[in-house]
Protein: Sulfolactate dehydrogenase
Amino acid sequence: MSMLVECEALRDWVKGILCRAGAPAPQASCVAHILLRTDSRGVRTHGVTRLASYVEKLRSGEVNPDPQISSHSISPNTMLLEADGAFGQVAMSEALRLGVQGLDTGDMRALLIRECGHLGALGLYALMAAEQGYFSVVAQRTPALMALPGFEHPAVGNNPIAFGCPISGADPLVFDMACSVAARGHILLRARSGEPIPEGWALDAHGEPTTEAAAALGGALLPSAGHKGMGIAMLVECLSAGLLASERSIAALRSETGVAIQGAVGRQGAFMLLINQRVLSRGYFDAYMSQWAGQYRRKGGVDARLPGARGAELEREVRRRGSLDISEDLYRELCGLAAQFGLNFPAAALA
Amino acid sequence: MSMLVECEALRDWVKGILCRAGAPAPQASCVAHILLRTDSRGVRTHGVTRLASYVEKLRSGEVNPDPQISSHSISPNTMLLEADGAFGQVAMSEALRLGVQGLDTGDMRALLIRECGHLGALGLYALMAAEQGYFSVVAQRTPALMALPGFEHPAVGNNPIAFGCPISGADPLVFDMACSVAARGHILLRARSGEPIPEGWALDAHGEPTTEAAAALGGALLPSAGHKGMGIAMLVECLSAGLLASERSIAALRSETGVAIQGAVGRQGAFMLLINQRVLSRGYFDAYMSQWAGQYRRKGGVDARLPGARGAELEREVRRRGSLDISEDLYRELCGLAAQFGLNFPAAALA
Structure:
């Protein structure tokens, strides 16, 4: 069973909660907009369900509600943003805004973003770049969460990475992955309900495979496809931590205990590469990729979709309807926040 | 059982065979050098075992033995190489040589390489870049080989990608993956011997999972970690085909039949991104990554190695010994080539 809520009213309410929790209106508005789009595209794990944890992060000071974001060019193609602990959504929106400036005649630009919060679904920023006509790669490091069998402690984050590619005459290709087989949130849910986790998700504190959710929480996540997931996570570490390292990030790395952490941690590095594929390919990129996308669908058959296509369809559907369906559990959680902040939850109808 | 062959003699012999098959000495020398380094680092699937197929490709004209490689800047940071059907090793060595020129004061450079042959182990070029002090990403597209369950035909290549990262005081981090669970070569071997293949490697011609090697050869490879492997392959398609697309590559894409092909196909696009991390990070990259690498090893425990560490150790061992061990099967195959080209195989001793 789920509840239908009018999108605009829900977005305004999310913004209102964030404001009451201490965020200035522009920041709250940016976060609310991105969380709603994320839900609209069907990425339920990274939408409004994160609101309670974001409120908590404002309260604990892990997210800086009113950051002084500064930026400067460190080379003709590379810009460094000091996000000052901003919400990831705020920092990345600013990075994208700066990144595309002048890029209509340029070829590529790298954005190095220091100390920003959880980005949510990285694909959203890759989508936003594609909607402006650019190819992009987006990555964020997380504290250590993953290990290979036999490891004593988690040794690398599950470091998400995404890319986006405009496709002429079709929805943008948007691909988004984390490097672990399963998110820690899924293990947390099963630990609460006492259910076992599938084999291949996690290790216990001794580096042994486990199907016990509680043991997994004290251990580490397994990477997707073994050493391949581990390697992609290392690539992300280089791009979104190494390239923008500072005295502070080195000190923060040193203080990572190797004990598994819970939820999305603030003040992490992020990376965005924007490519103006029209300048580089003189128009052939569009011709090639639209030909390629058509072939992919033909070779795949009726069920073949490119990543991003289903999200785009869902979002159109939500826009047409003007309302978003949310699970009953989430509905109850949001009503709790509503009561806590004295801000009525919008009217919701059984879906 | 394996045979020990003196490295220099083996390299000279490989070069000699390639020369007799039609390659000019500089090209033959470049290919021989890279194949030998690949074997020395333990990547046996992409070393001298490829010689017979390279000779075949010279014969069939798929590799152009004496290409007119030309290059020009298409923007301040991007260079396009027309490889004219060259050996991948030759084209990529040239790309790397051009790419690092002037990069000691620059920040990044993209190399778009049109129509080059099989690169072999992509990690070798990432390693070569790291040995010169640069961070790099290398990718090459292949014709369509992979599908998801239910697909009617292979829809995307198993598009390998690699990256390399210098680490202060340690061997470079070198990571190299293809996007399929298993290489087609492994399926080919099992089809010859009549052995079944493991579940999860491949689909048959109807898009159904199969453990029959022969059926898999008429079907498609499965991507690593399902949609994740598929997505990474699409990223590679954008970078190493889309960005450097031309009338010819679009026509070639159109003529891909979706019928699985055998072996490494020539005249494919490749991509290399070189980053001068010292300029971008003002020295902090090195400090961060060496701290990170140390922590990775400590958290991992005695068995934890960074990708590239074992290859570096093996290569030092081969250098110390001055000889390479090759399998008996490969030895017999190479002796066959020796007879065919009238060029005696170097002295080999039982290992």
